[in-house]
Write a structure and sequence with these properties.
232 residues, alpha+beta, Beta-Lactamase, 2 domains, 6-stranded antiparallel sheet, 5-stranded antiparallel sheet, 11 strands, 37% helix, elongated
Length: 232
């Protein structure tokens, strides 16, 4: 019988530990926002993982950071070729360390990007927020929390629309008013809302917003403990 549930009730680390302690040969799948995530166990050992184009330990560390999604654990008789050889105890410890360092690294990068936006004349305001809507950096003391909440909502809705219409990744949304343009960018674990003057050339603005998105999104997990490196 399969075990089915939601990560809000039972987190990934606990699921992994349960399967390892019970020496299960099983497949754990999670319906994550960025696509399906899978972990295979063979007699209690983690032997393979895939998620968002990655495989092996790198994929497992990203899976361990998932906080939302429905999961399913199913007993299997065969598993894929082994790509993970480290003990599950060491994997969990390293995974938790990587996640902690990455979150702190993302915050540092977000703060540096905020300083860059402050120095850009075309930008009238910005909010950089976590996936949960927590403000990381902003120069909008009056409506920063509202913009952060809007960024979370639009990123979630955008992913749903893109998925249903098979459009690929929806990374930037733009809202226009008579006076300005507000860009909402999905940067992975960080979301951005950037308000710019409408008179500014739109092509330049999209380039600027996409540059911010790339800097926030492509911070490698493996670089986090050494001070994350921004990819230009």
């Amino acid at each position: 019988m399969a075990l089915v549930g939601d990560l809000k009730d039972l987190n990934i680390a606990t699921l992994v530990q349960l399967n390892c302690v019970e020496k299960n040969t099983a497949e754990l799948t999670v319906s994550a926002r960025k696509g399906p995530a899978t972990v295979f166990f063979n007699k209690g050992e983690i032997v393979h993982a895939t998620y968002s184009g990655e495989r092996g330990e790198d994929a497992l560390y990203r899976i361990l950071s998932l906080a939302e999604g429905e999961f399913r654990v199913t007993a299997v008789t065969e598993v894929p070729d082994r790509t993970i050889f480290t003990s599950w105890e060491s994997l969990l410890l390293e995974g938790m360390r990587v996640i902690d360092e990455t979150e702190r690294g993302k915050a540092r990068i977000a703060e540096s990007v905020g300083e860059e936006l402050d120095d850009t004349p075309e930008i009238e305001g910005y909010v950089l927020a976590s996936e949960k809507g927590e403000v990381i950096a902003t120069n909008r003391s009056d409506d920063g929390e509202k913009l952060a909440a809007a960024a979370v909502l639009l990123a979630w809705k955008g992913e749903g629309v893109a998925s249903r219409m098979v459009l690929g990744e929806m990374s930037i949304l733009a809202l226009l008013t008579e006076k300005d343009m507000t860009f909402f960018a999905d940067c992975g674990r960080v979301l951005a809302a950037i308000i710019a003057k409408k008179s500014t050339a739109s092509e330049q603005l999209y380039g600027l917003v996409d540059s911010v998105r790339r800097k926030l999104k492509y911070c490698e997990l493996t670089q986090a403990s050494q001070g994350p490196e921004i990819i230009p």
